[in-house]
Here is the input.
Amino acid sequence: MIKGTPLKDGRIMRVIIIGAGEVGRGVAAALRDEKRQVALIDPDPVAINESQSIDCLLITGNALSRDSLLRAGISDAEIVVLCTNSDEINLLGCAFAKRVYSEQVGDRATRGVITIATVRDPTMLDKNRGAGPLERWSRADHIVCASDDIVKQLAAGLLAPSVEEILPLGDNAWIAVAEVMQNSALIGKTTGEVGNWIVDIPSIYAIKSGSSGGSLVNGNEVIQEGDLLCFVARSTEGFPTITTGVGLQDPDWPSVPLVAIFGATQFGAKLAAHYLATGAEVVVIEPDLDVANELVGSPTGNSKRLDVIHGDPQD
Here is the structure.
């Protein structure tokens, strides 16, 4: 029997995920770990079969099936996540889910349900070349584009390569996980007093000591060599204090870096736009002349700090 986390009014929180691919299964498993009630919908019986290990309601159906949404419990849903292989289905599915929810609960404004759509093609988000901003017309409350997150995560990781893991939280906030080295000034200090010893170091929210599982901090844990500390930074400017605090050392990032990007693909173009926005000089090398010219003719190509070279990156 699947049990969920009760809401304040006694109802059980339900999250409906449409698309049982790698992303959908990962989200479903993570939510079940948090004791959320989850329904997973996919038209492919193979995908449903591969999801059997997840303790959730599995439904063979699709995003645009009223019957599928009703079987998934749309009237009790708090969140509907669309993560199929089709960007168009994900966006249309948000509108349809809100429509069915409205029919069931009589909430025309559909304030009771949040829809999230994943978008694979970053071009769709562009207001000139695509259909952005999607939130203004698609009925999706939140748009998630993996390439945007990957660009941010890659760029942030280069700022602090010695940090074990860096994850974006949104609004330029970050989770950073770092191991405490033997020369760390934090050894012997409690998690609640690190700010008294290192100015502007981000707060520690979780700690993992030895073979024991990680846990949220209460401020009284004594930091030891080898501990993994989870920091929450409000910007990437906090990374240097994290690495210094745990006893690591990263090379200084140039004030005006020169960044070379091999490939003017959609991802390469996004990466170039990111670094140009930070004031960097960027060189993009692309073997396909048409693709190189497309980048030159784009808004990103207008920057005087961008050089696009038609050539072989392996030369």
